[in-house]
Amino acid sequence: MTTSNPSRDPDPSHGLSNDPALGAGATTKATPWTQTVVGIGVLLTGLALAFGAIGISSEAGYGGVGPNFLPWLVSIALTLCGGWIIWEARTGGFRDLDEPSGAATSYWSGFAWVSAGLLLNAALITTIGFILSCTLCYLLAVQGLRRAAGQSAASAPGTWAIDLLTGLLISAPVFWLFTKFLAINLPGLTATGWI
Q: What angle in degrees, to the nearest 10, is found between the helix axes of 32-54 and 69-90?
């Protein structure tokens, strides 16, 4: 159903949940005010990035652009998108918005798996090297996503082995690309530059 104004909705139950976990009649549809808040958040993020970009040198380097080019580009894009979201929300809400999909509540266990992967990567990258820490990050993050999707094979040893191998196949070439071809130092496990 694609209504742009909830007050004109012919179905009074539209946007209400029958999920007992949420309670009878709990709202699952975003209102123009919540959409406006999202727009304000995007706009403020763009402005904060622009404020940070002011302090970055604009001296042109390799390729004719300076180090402040990308922060300015992102801040301008976010500021424009934030303004557009606010305009969209204040002129009747997002049009042709699909009904929300997925679970009615957050899956905190999956969030914990992904967070553990990111935090362990940051904590261990200088100790066990880029390849192993990124592989660990991938392994734990994919486990969180598999569990959130309800995959029954997430705990199987074969799934863990496949995810471990996939993480290695992604992180090792990235490490080699940066260290061997681009001559950018990344933390390695050995001084050879290969692991």
A: 160
Which token pair is 72?
Answer: 């300015």
The rounded distance, in Å, linking the Cα atoms of 132 and 113 is 17
Query: What is the C-alpha to C-alpha distance for residues 82 and 120, in angstroms, rounded to an integer?
Result: 33
Token pair for 36:
């406006």
Asked if 47 contacts 75 with a C-beta cutoff of 8 angstroms, the reply is yes
Q: CA distances (Å), 112 to each of 4, 86, 124, 141, 166, in order? A: 36, 32, 18, 9, 21
pTM for the full model? 0.56
Do 92 and 8 contact (CB within 8 A), yes or no?
no
Inter-residue contact 106 to 21 (CB < 8 Å): no
How many of the other CB atoms lie within 10 Å of CB of 178? Answer: 14
For residue 56, give the 3-state DSSP assignment.
Answer: coil
pLDDT tens, residue by residue, 153-179:
999 999 999 999 999 999 999 999 888
- The torsion angles phi and psi of 164, rounded to 5 degrees, stand at -65, -45
pLDDT digits 0-9 by tens, 50-68? 999 898 887 766 666 777 8
* Cα distance between residue 178 and residue 166, in whole Å: 19
